[in-house]
Specification:
This protein is an alpha/beta fold and about 210 residues long. Helices cover about 35% and strands about 20% of the residues.
Length: about 210
């Protein structure tokens, strides 16, 4: 089943000396243990082919029904790292011993070159979309954004890395004001540009 599901990725796993299981936010509900999609390759690599498996950049949000399953699977990996304190605290409280803290490496990035500034009269905060934006109450989301704008006199700057993210800015414009800045991945000249925009913001809100 794993070979059929993953194809070329399965072959790459066979050739590898070590497997890095880059999790991000994939362990978020019971579906992670009900399908082949997430855990199958690293589990097979470890138990069928005796590969070194390092699980990193994980966020784990799960129910009590799946906690024991995940603990049994992850405890067999050689190293486990989570990316935020909430997950670390939850797992250590549940008795996980083979788990450490490794923040997302984006926070270790060193920004060099030109310092970019948005031409805004006020200070600003950034708003991104989310991989789960279809589950959001977008009207409630942008209403909260507008409340922050009014309460703290900060200008919202909308960031969109995917087309689906743009619904946030569109909804805000429809309900409140067209006078906002929106930056998409097509418009940003470089990753350094975005680093500077984020670094100069008073706060950042979003699911990415």
């Amino acid at each position: 089943l794993c070979r059929l599901r993953f194809g070329q990725q399965y072959k790459r796993m066979l050739w590898a000396d070590m497997i890095f299981f880059q999790g991000e936010g994939s362990i978020v509900d019971d579906s992670c243990v009900r399908s082949l999609r997430i855990l199958c390759l690293p589990f097979l690599a470890k138990h069928r082919y005796n590969k070194k498996v390092v699980s990193c950049n994980q966020t784990i949000v799960t129910t009590s029904q799946t906690k024991s399953i995940l603990k049994n699977v992850f405890s067999t990996f050689d190293l486990n790292y989570v990316r935020e304190p909430e997950t670390l605290n939850m797992l250590t409280a549940d008795g996980w011993t083979q788990v450490g803290f490794m923040p997302d490496h984006a926070f270790l990035s060193v920004v060099q070159g030109k310092d970019y500034h948005l031409k805004l009269e006020k200070q600003y905060f950034c708003v991104s979309g989310s991989a789960s934006i279809q589950k959001y109450d977008v009207v409630a989301y942008v209403t909260a954004i507008h409340a922050i704008r009014q309460q703290y006199e900060l200008e919202p700057v909308f960031l969109a890395s995917r087309r689906s993210d743009r619904i946030v800015a569109r909804t805000y414009k429809k309900l409140f004001s067209n006078n906002v800045v929106e930056i998409t991945s097509n418009e940003a000249p470089s990753i350094e540009y975005l680093y500077r925009i984020l670094a100069n913001a008073e706060l950042v809100i979003g699911g990415r």
